[in-house]
Give the backbone structure.
Amino acid sequence: MKLIKLLTVFLSILFISSSISAQEYTVSGYIKDADNGETLIGAFIYLTENGASTVSNEYGFYSISVEAGTYTLNGTYLGYKDMVQTIILDQSTKIEIELGPDENTLEEIVVTAEEVDRNVKSLEMSVNKLDIKTLTKLPTLLGETEILRGIQLLPGVTSVGEGAAGFNVRGGSIDQNLVLLDEAPVYNSSHLFGFFSVFNPDAVKDVKLYKGGIPARYGGRLSSILDVRMKEGNSKELEITGGVGTIFSRLAVEAPIVKDKSSFIIAGRRSYIDVLSKPFLDEDVGSPVLNFYDLTLKTNYKFSDKDQLFLSGYFGRDNFGFGESAGFNWGNQTGTVRWNHLFSDKLFANLTTYYSNYDYQINFGDTEEDSFDWNAKIKNYSVKPEFSWYIKPQNILRFGGQSIYYIFEPANAISVSNDVTTDISTSEQYSIESNVFVENEITLFDKLQINYGLRLSHFAYLGERNVYTFDDTVERGVQKPLINVTQAESGEVIEDFFNLEPRFSLKADLGDNSSLKASYNRTAQYIHLLSNTTASTPVDIWTPATNNINPAMADQVALGYFQNFKDNEYEFSGEIYYKKLNDLVDYIDGADLILNEFVESQILDGDGRAYGTELMLKKAEGRFSGWISYTLARSERQVNGINNNEWYPSRFDQTHNLSVTTFYELNDRLTLSANFVYNSGTPTTFANSGYYQQGYFIPNNDNNVRNNVRIPDYHRLDFALTIDPKPGERKWKGQWVFGIYNIYSRRNPFSIYFKQDGERVTVGQPVNTEAIRLSVIGNFIPSVSYNFTFK
Amino acid sequence: MKKYTYILALAGILGFASCEDPITVDNGFEASQIVVDAWITNEEGQQIIDVKESQDYFDNRLPTGITNAEVTVTNAEETFNFVHVADGQYVWTPPTGSEIIGDVGDEFTLKIEVDNKTLTSTTQLNRVPEIDSISIFFEDEPFGADEGFFAELYARDLPGKGDTYWVKSYRNDTLLNRPQELNIIYDATFDAGTDIDGTTFIRPLRFAINAVDDDGLPRNVDQGDKVKCEIYSISNEAFRFLQIVQEQTTNGDNSIFALPVANSRGNIRDENGDLVLGVFNVAAVSREEVEVN
């Protein structure tokens, strides 16, 4: 209740500051694409006369309150024709802004979907937006448009290697990213391990990555928020888009249900690696199953000018198996219901409720006497009200809260051995994560804009279950001893945590074309992914903070300089950051993390630090466009029980990370794009000695060090040629994309491992050993894909 | 751990474009250390303990023996002297040929004196279940291998939690000694942390007595083949040791899902209490052999 008091005080202060103003009226409404009715996120709306401005929110809503008068209202969004309209503001007015395509830039690549000087003018720092249209022209592996591959071309984003699931932001592990699809968290964002993401580009409208300066309305993970918003569906006419690629095919249908009131989109993808590979597989392998598919749906209904409802869902599955004897499948399901309500022209409210589930199933054995069935899940349900109050153009107050109920089912497993059945399930875990936040964005003295906020988060680890208490690790490589077992009742709070998470960002204009930005954020994370392998596997499970596992905390400061040149044609940004991480999860040597009731005994906790410089130069418009991104960074860990308790680089630490992405329009229809990536080799650990036990030759790391050597550097060049349809109105528009990935066939190492060579050793003879370089992509990979739109 | 390997073997279809090349690397080897290889049994006959040196991982040679050690094993009543024979191999020979060093439940202490160092370790001789049978079945493509006849080891874990075993298998008297053939059992299953106890060894472990070919797939048996299995009782410490051996020596099979490099933890300590390389284990053994017909 302390909290509510705090909120009231906070709100009343703001009330006082805002109530001393003259007679004001509000112009508000939605800003949309005139062609398909999709709302535009982050569009810039301003009044010429007094410069009052705002940016449309995630639902395309804007609101500007000014004194009565006659104004010129402008709506702008890069790649669209500006809308200019004169308004007489003698009462509050609703104006729907529809932007048509800018003919001059019709086929030009626009590498940012936002207003032209956002780089400098927006308060946001450490934030990147990706435009889907840009992504489709990027050279990619097997020609598939990939959101998660795309964001790895941005500064500060790395990956442990090719094909690895997830991504690392500013030295954070993959579970420190909150990946949201229409606000529902996606726990495993990959198909086919890490080659493709679960996001269907046909259904995605907007992708925004927060690496720092995270506003108080977001939280729950330490390092980043990837906010993916789905399209609403064409509200003007039927539109069918799709594509045929090397790996999978896509089809999306969108159409109005009730014109201008309701529309839908349904988009699906299905891989056909199994179909293609069948003729090449040895018949003896049985009938292997290898496929993945996903389905993305969304619909909306506008009840009135004040109320709008959105329903969205995602369902995806990866399937692997050999005949009937063994199978393995995994996938996410999410469902989101959102209700937008306007309490007034100035107060926008959204209520989100979602369901999210990630689960996998494994089964072996085709007889009843011997079988093994295992599934695991992380389910959660959430309610999240949020309010945006557009007090003045210079002042927006946001507040709200969220509550998430989690059910962790680490293993529901039945083992049948020789007709004897044993239930080897591990206990479920329950918890509730709640938070409230308030965030105020204010412009002072015209030149200074700040956003300050506070998030109060709470996490409760609940019964019913056995509560184990483990002592500290006794010695390296030994699991923590179990010292006590008690029983918690259903709903009983076993352990709970409170955290205050202050957030702050500031922007100071240095002139028309440059600005200085600074930010600080504290983030708390209450759930951890237990993953001890180089790349995370689909069987990795999540665990809540418990009486034995602390929530992780991070503090990050960042400072940045932003400058645009040549009438916003070029954008430059430079940022430095320092991030301190506490209570990160790590593991004892030889940790057993799955199917283990006592998994908490395998966990060590440690600290981390990450710091670096990120530079980005972007040419946003013109025949020749693209960006260069460079990061100089360090990411380190310190864990008692690893590396002799000293700091060591994390597995995804990359000193240098450079990417150059360019597009060149040969003519109206042909675009050539190229992509060059260079990363420093990631650290790894080598065994330096070996010894024999009972004929086995056992590797040993004599000094117990971790990540003390680096694998060779990674570099790669890709090309793509896009052939767009002839300009003009036609029902069917087709686009061809030809690409070559890894054009000079570099065998970039994913890892180097040691093993004994293939021959069986004769007893009494020495074991021969070798070092192996594993390259996930060992060759150049050509691709062709065809994308189409019909409307 | 092995259960990962099973899961990932399923998923191992990753390799559409991947490749593995042998390379030369500098692993920074500095100096050798003492290694004690003391896995003995309470069976009749000679018992052997090796005291040797560790070596550069890439030396590709047999280890250098330490020849000046004094090696003894004691139980509550007796001390058994292990005499140096050659190349760091120390042997205890039963005086009349039929004495054994002790019975299930006995505690044993290993003591090695070498170059002013004293290495010691204590372990218990644990129980071992009888083998019910080695059965031969026709299998339709087990774990992706060719169809054919395969062997399975039927034995039942002894009731009571925490029994750990090492199953050694032989095909026509050849010890199956590839890293992928290392077969260790914790209460009938892969490892601790589950409720499995007192049941027949689970199917993947029963099946793991089959030889593995160069591609890591199980090899079928042919008519006339002899299949022999031995179950050794091992201590929980020895089990943990072998579990990490198994993970680390087959880690390459995990491809991009490799585990971090970890050292196997032995149970022999020097006079300062620091661990030295190697394990002391005294096993009870049960064995069975069949001919495929």
